[in-house]
Specification:
The complex is a heterodimer. By secondary structure, chain A is α/β, with parallel strands linked by helices. Chain A has 9 helices and 8 strands. Bound molecules: thiamine diphosphate. Thiamine diphosphate binds next to helix 4 of chain A.
Chain lengths: 284, 384
């Protein structure tokens, strides 16, 4: 991280980008989603890009309600389809900085096909995934990131399916930027989102923040929740991603860090070059 | 070369229906296409892939039809005229997103080149079985406008009209074609550009602090798009005039009435049909798309043989031009509905004509009923 002095936005500046008239929000006390919302707003204010060029897109779920509280162009679309909406928008209007904010179920369970193909195309979108281990909005069913062994509404005898190890999955698909933090890591999340804004391609951040209502974090208060992260987190930017799967074991480690960051050229950049060539030389 | 200078020049061409649709779309201002391959619509995506970069537009072949339609809703919300094309199975996958476009008032154009259904059905052969789905395929109450071309010329004209209607009313619009019209090669006339009506986005005139994205003082509120500083919040949830979610019952009724009213209050302006010799007819044949061409021949042959028969060709499925059907029904006429399905438009005609006076030719083998088959049915109905 850089050593220059960082001037953080004041609370009033943060509020200026919040739809305060919509409060109270729908998130439960102690839920980690709000922390990420604030971190995103701080990153927008510090991005150096005009605030009005930032756009938020989300699907359906607790996490997907985020655009509703932030005073930017925000699009709350249908379950699992935030990525194609964002891709359409970004493709035709390159000056937009488009960020997708999604729950794990929305993004990689119902929306999994769009997710993998956006990485393959290397679409120029930022994707922030709240991993709360479950479908929060519908009452705690299991999803693609639910750790094996979890008891959920729809796996009452214990979850016997596997789950995605997201950093490994996303890196293996070739995404140019992959990071993971927890709700404890406010500053790191801000810094990471600022880096994601600069990536010309698919930038992915997983924020681990288990649902405090529907997982075994059952009704944990905010302080104990943060202490739990502090006890379990290991920061390792060079971790072997095969070893970073999340576990239901309360003593297991949560490995976080900036795992992948490499040069990239997005589909959108390549397309515009192709278009200029076709328009210029009359080929085709 | 300048943007737009490679649009198809005014003149007379010999052209495939699907290609005419592409050229019409580009002239209408379409600059984004998201699609997924499916017969018999493939010529549209192939042509779009070639033509869009030539005119400064964007093409993406997506991973499925859900992504395709959602991507065009995204692009339209960035202010760019956008379109997708598909056939039955893909149209089924698009249904949820059609409801979204209706709810967040996003203008998009969907071309459905129908094939035989249900399911995978008859991929290469003609069908007209998506007539009802274009209005009732998505959940909840919604309205779309659906054009029914019956020639390559109309694939051109009606695609332009579809864009105009979509952007005028901020609604999803469907061009419901079929395999035969899509693949047919015929003369297409491209008029002088200044003779072609083009409707663009109604932009907000007020500054952001005064702007309400779903202002109920308008039937069709002006549309702000991403990046203009209006900072809109759009959601498929029931929402108030600010776009904020609410479960207030009064608000929901107001919203629904306005959303549906955009089309219902303008149905007589939007709906289109064509009549041939209906005035003195004892029997009116109702048909659309490719079937209307066969029906016209059958009606002419019947006239030659002394039968008083006319043709009522639907040019829009929805809004359904029922008022004229009622007038004809009031004159005591019989009706025969001919369509390539086992009974869809006939149900709508029965809403406006006494049951026993509505006849039907159930026919969905994967080809258009030939004029002789329709003529036999006409004779059977008239009992002579
Ligand atoms: C097509 C469709 N299927 C199901 C639902 C119901 N639904 C709403 S939210 C949700 C799951 C949300 O889980 P996730 O994306 O993990 O977000 P979270 O609520 O946990 O933040 C589901 C299944 C829906 N809205 N649309």
């Amino acid at each position: 991280m850089s050593s220059e002095v960082v001037i953080r936005p004041s609370i009033d500046e943060i509020k200026s980008l919040m739809r305060v008239e919509r409060l109270p929000h729908i998130w439960c006390p102690s839920c980690g989603i709000g922390i990420v919302a604030k971190a995103y707003v701080e990153a927008v204010l510090r991005s150096g890009k005009p605030v009005d060029k930032h756009v938020l897109v989300s699907g359906i779920g607790c996490s997907s309600r985020m655009p509703g509280y932030i005073k930017l162009d925000g699009y709350h679309v249908i379950h699992g389809r935030a990525i194609p909406f964002a891709v359409g928008m970004k493709t035709v209007k390159p000056e937009l900085e488009v960020t997708v904010f999604a729950g794990d179920g929305d993004l990689i369970t119902i929306g999994g096909n769009h997710f993998i193909h956006a990485i393959r195309r290397n679409d120029d979108v930022n994707v922030i995934m709240i991993n709360n281990y479950t479908y929060g909005m519908t009452g705690g069913q299991y999803g693609g990131t639910t750790p094996p062994g979890s008891r959920t509404l729809t796996s009452p005898y214990g979850h016997i399916e596997g789950s995605f190890n997201m950093p490994l999955f996303v890196a293996s698909l070739g995404a140019p930027f992959v990071a993971r933090w927890t709700a404890l890591h406010y500053r790191q999340i801000v810094d990471t989102i600022l880096e994601m804004f600069k990536v010309d391609g698919f930038a992915f951040l997983e924020v681990v923040t288990p649902c405090i209502i529907y997982t075994d974090m059952n009704r944990m208060d905010a302080v104990s929740f943060m202490k739990m992260f502090r006890d379990r987190v290991v920061i390792d930017h060079n971790a072997d991603l095969r070893d970073v799967a999340l576990s239901v074991d309360p003593d297991s480690k949560i490995v976080v860090g900036k795992f992948v960051s490499r040069e990239s050229e997005s589909f959108q950049t390549k397309y515009r070059r192709l278009m200029e060539k076709v328009m210029g030389d009359g080929s085709g | 070369m300048k943007n737009g200078s490679r649009l198809l020049k005014p003149g007379s061409y010999f052209m495939r229906g699907n290609n005419a649709c592409v050229e019409g779309a580009l002239i209408a201002g379409c600059r984004f296409f998201g699609g997924y391959p499916i017969t018999p619509s493939n010529e549209i995506s192939a042509m779009m892939a070639r033509r869009l970069p030539q005119v400064g537009g964007y093409f993406i072949q997506f991973e499925d039809e859900i992504a395709s339609i959602v991507s065009i809703i995204g692009a339209a919300n960035a202010g760019v005229k956008s379109m997708t094309a598909t056939s039955g199975p893909g149209f089924s996958l698009m249904q949820e997103a059609i409801g979204l476009a209706f709810m967040i008032e996003t203008p998009i154009v969907i071309v459905n080149v129908q094939r035989g259904g249900p399911s995978t059905g008859l991929p290469t052969q003609v069908g007209q079985g998506d007539f009802m789905q274009t209005h009732f395929g998505s959940h909840g109450d919604y309205e779309t406008v659906v054009y029914l071309p019956n020639s390559p010329q109309e694939m051109f004209d009606m695609t332009i009209k579809a864009f105009n209607t979509a952007w005028r009313y901020r609604v999803p619009v469907v061009v419901l074609s079929d395999q035969m019209v899509g693949h047919m090669i015929e003369k297409v006339i491209v008029p002088e550009y200044d003779e072609i009506e083009i409707v663009d986005r109604i932009k907000p005139e007020v500054p952001p602090e005064k702007y309400l994205p779903f202002d109920s003082n308008y039937l069709v509120p002006p549309m702000a798009v991403a990046g203009e500083g209006y900072r809109v919040h759009l959601t498929g949830l029931a929402h108030d005039e600010r776009g904020y979610p609410t479960t207030d019952h009064g608000n929901m009724m107001k919203l629904l009435n306005r959303l549906l009213g955009k089309i219902r209050k303008n149905e007589r302006k939007i709906a289109e049909w064509e009549e041939y010799m209906t005035d003195d007819a004892d029997l009116v044949v109702v048909a659309f798309g490719i079937t209307s061409r066969s029906a016209l021949k059958a009606v002419k042959d019947a006239r030659d043989q002394g039968y008083k028969v006319g043709l009522y060709r639907l040019k829009t499925a929805w809004p359904f031009p029922y008022w004229r059907i009622r007038e004809l029904a009031d004159e005591g006429k019989e009706f025969l509905v001919v369509e390539i399905n086992m009974g869809q438009a006939v149900r709508v005609v029965r809403e406006y004509v006494p049951f026993e006076r509505v006849h039907h030719l159930p026919w969905a083998p994967g080809k258009c009923p030939p004029p002789e088959v329709i003529l036999d049915k006409i004779k059977e109905v008239l009992g002579r």
